[in-house]
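Translate sequence into C-alpha cells.
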Amino acid sequence: MKLQIQSIHFTINNDLNNLIKRKIFKIFNIDENILNTEIFLKIDKPSSYNNKIFEIKIQSSKSSYFAKKKSNTFEESLDLALHALRKQIVKNKQIQR
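Result follows.
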C-alpha cells in the first residue's frame, strides 16, 4: 500500500500530516484491497472563505474511489472527503456481494 500526500504551493505541518495518515489508515481497515492512495491539498483563493480543498484518489484491486471537498479548514475538508469515501467503499462492497 502506497500513500502519497502532496500540498500544492504550500507546506503542511506535521500535525496535519499525522492526522491525515491516522484517518486514512481507518479507511484501509474497511477495504483491505487498497493499493495506492494519492492526496492533494490546495488553497483555492487565499483571501476567501471555504478555500481549503482536500482531494483523495484511492486505487483498489477491485475499484477506484475519488472524493473532493472544500471548506474553511483542511481538517473539516478531510472529514467530509473521508465520509464520502466510506460511503463509496461500503456501497461498492455491498454491490460485489
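Note: The first strand starts at residue 2 and ends at 7.
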